[in-house]
Structures are given as C-alpha cells and as structure tokens.
Amino acid sequence: MYVFSGRNTEPPDALFLERLDAFMVKCLADIKAFADREYRPFEETRQYVAEWHSRYLFQPPPPVGDSTVHLAAKVRSLLCDTSRILESLYETAGIQSFVLAVDLNNPDDKGFLGGSVMGREFWRGLRNGGESGAKTFREYCLREQDTTRMASAPHDDSSSSRSSSVPTRHPPAKSLKNELYENVRKALRLVSGIRNAEMKWTSPDKLNVYGVRLVGWPSTIPAQNPSTLRASQNQLLLDSLERGIMRFEKILVSSSSTEPTDRPGAAVEGLFDGQGGAEDVDFSWAYDADGGSSSVCSRLTMMLHILGSLSCLDYIATICARSSMEQRDKHV
User: Fold this and answer.
1) Do 227 and 188 share a domain, yes or no?
2) Rounded to two decimals, what is the model's pTM?
3) What's the Cα-to-Cα distance from 199 to each of 112, 152, 186, 291, rounded to whole Å?
C-alpha cells in the first residue's frame, strides 16, 4: 500500500528555521514595497498573497490531459494534494485525519493512505487495518458496486410483461412465521390484559385460563404450531388476524348462570336480586333464643366470614335490632 508523506517527519535543524524566517521577512518587505508601488494597503496585498499561496495547498493542479496514460498520474497527484490538505489542517487547526483510497479498476492496486502522521499510524496499527484492511475495503466496494448495478439495470419489455403476471412475492417463511407468532402474542396479551399470556396453538380451547377465547380460526387449517404449518397457511392466519376475522374475545359470564357461593360477596349479591329488602330475608338461622347474645354474635361472625363482603352490614344491623327486641320481650 502506498503511504503518502508530504513532509519529513524529522524536525528541521535550527539553522534552517533561522534562514527560513529571514527569507520570509525579506518576502514581507518585498510585498510591502509592491503594495506601495501599487498604492494598495499592505494588509490587503498580504491577504491576496495568502490566497494565491492557498491555491497550491487546497486546489488540485490543472489537468494535464484526458488520455489513459496520464489518468493514474492525475489520480495519484489528486490524492497527494488531498493528503497535503489534511496535513495542513492538522498544522493549522490540530485536526487529526487520514484518507484511504482504492482503485476498483486495477486488480493490482494495494490502496493509498494519506493524511496526518498520527492518522496514518492509527490505520496501519489498527487490527485488520493496513494493507489487508485496504484489500477488504476494495472487496466490499466491488460487492456493493455489483449489487447497485444489478438493481439499477433496465429491464426489457418482455421481462417486464412476464414479471407483471407474477404475483407479489411474500416474505420468507421464517420471517412470516416469526411475524405470526409476534402478532398473535400481542393480540392475546392486549385482550386478556395478562403480560405473559402465551397462545395455545394446539389447544385454543384452553385459552379460557386467560379469560378469553379465539374466534375466526380458518376451518381449513388444523390447530397446530406455525412451525409445522405451511407458509401459505401461516399467511392466511396472519391475513385473518390483520383483517379482524380471527380475533380474541373476552369471555363474559351470563347473569343467569349459577355462580359459586364460595366467591367473596356472591351470597350478598344474591340478596339484592329480589325486590324486597332486609325484612324479606329469613335470618332465623343466625339467631338462637336459647343461646343468648353470645350465640347470636358467634353466628353473625360466621356469616360475615362466609360472605366476606361489607355489603352485609345492613343485614347484620337488622339482625341485631330484631335480636334486641326479642330479648327485651323475653325479659318482660
């Protein structure tokens, strides 16, 4: 790999720098004399001189020809000028950089490396960098170039007419299966409200554990895992889910159905189903005339424990009032 170094890395000797300073002072004196002869301000003339010199640093040289013989020389000259610009950028602004270039048309090209000294050393010392990195970069560019050329190549009318009759190609079977898994899982968890709910593919009737049921499963597709189904079947399931044909629904308990009485508050809710109030309910089982008030309290405690709901407080107050009246009548 060709490494451009536009400046000697060894520091110049002090005598050279001293002679260079003397030469530049003489140049400034000549510029001042020229400005006086032209009746122009010295700083303005000095700025023009700096711009003229920048053309050498920041602009490529004029083309020498368009022949193939000079093409490689032109490219190399342009890259060298670019490297000089990056070196000057470090000297003036302290910015480190490097440039890597490869010729895709030359199979023997080993690349061009330029830039600041530290930037070049970084690339050469980088793992998988250096000349092997330039080779890897060239191979990558060739692959991308071929892909871009194939994508942008024009098609003839016959091929376009044949392609128009071909149906739209579906995504690969693996991505289709993963999309079906993900969409069904999201729909199930959204309807059930359970974050870790999982689809029962082989036994969807067991989804009642999540309080939901599956409706709209295509009758032509068996209840199996998508991994065992064909791609066309998975596509049909996915389309049915997206169109709302196949969906999850909440299981609603009918009001006429018999509910278990061991559920907290179930017995109390049943007391409110009729039109009557607390006086229409028989609480004789909770009162024992021979047992006294302690027996009544124990039975009320048992009832409260069974019902497990604060809604029965009104009925407890009714029982207590009835018990007090009967105790008073007994003593009288």
Assistant:
1) yes
2) 0.33
3) 58, 44, 10, 57
3 within 8 A of 123, measured Cβ to Cβ: no
Query: Residues 119-176: pLDDT tens digits?
Result: 889 988 888 888 888 888 888 888 887 766 655 455 454 544 444 454 555 567 778 8
User: Looking up tokens 């407890």, which residue turns up?
Assistant: 316
Check if the beta carbon of residue 57 is closer than 8 Å to that of residue 88.
Answer: yes
Q: Which residues contact 77 (CB under 8 A, 6 or more apart)?
A: 60, 61
Whether 115 and 26 map to the same domain: the answer is: yes
What confidence tier does 110 reach under pLDDT thresholds 50, 70, 90?
confident
Q: Which residues lie closer than 8 Å to 330 by C-beta, 6 or more apart?
A: 289
- 166 domain residue, yes or no: no
- In this structure, the answer to whether residues 189 and 97 fall within a common structural domain is no
Contacts with 38 (C-beta within 8 Å, 6 or more apart), sequence order: 45
Quote the domain boundaries for residue 301. Answer: 266-331
E-assigned strands of 42-140? 98-101, 112-115
247-250/212-215 β-pairing: antiparallel
Q: What letter does residue 153 receive in the DSSP assignment?
A: -
Closest CA to 106 of 251, 1, 250, 213: 1
Contact 273, 265 (CB under 8 A): no
Q: CB–CB of 316/299 below 8 Å? A: no
Dump the DSSP string for 119-144: HHHHHHHSTT-HHHHHHHHHHHHHHH
Burial of 39 (0-12, 13-18, 19+ CB in 10 A): exposed
| Sheet of 2-3, strands arranged across | 2-3, 112-115, 98-101
For the four alpha carbons of 125, 131, 134 and 140, in that order, the dihedral sign comes to negative
Instruction: Say if residue 221 is in the same domain as residue 196.
Output: yes
Query: Other CB atoms closer than 10 Å to residue 304's CB: what's the count?
Result: 15
